[in-house]
Amino acid sequence: MSTFDTVVSIGSRKSRAIIADPRFRALVRERLILRVGLSVILLMGFFGLILTASFEPWVFDRPLPGGIPLAIAITVTLVLLTVMLTGWYVYRSNRQFDRQARAISEIVA
Description:
By secondary structure, the chain is mainly alpha-helical. The chain contains 4 helices and no strands.
C-alpha cells in the first residue's frame, strides 16, 4: 500500500479527492524531482570538497590571484550556491507549485 493510498483511506472526502487527482500526483512528483535534483547538486559539491580535502589536500594550497586560498574560495562558493538554490526553490515553489496546488484544490472543491 502506497503513502497516497494510506492517506486516501483515512482522510476527509475532499482530501481523498485531491490526493486521487492525477494533477496532484504530477505536482507531488515534480516537486520531488526538483528537491532530489537540488539535493544531489549540493551533496556532490560538499562531498567533493570533503573528499578532495581528505585525499588530495595539496590542491587547496594554491592561492588565487588575490591571495585568497583556494579552499576558502570554494567553501564560500558552496555556501553561496546553497543560498541561491534554496532561494530559487522557494521562488519556484511560491510561483508555480503553490499556484498549481490552489488550482487543484479549487477544482476539486
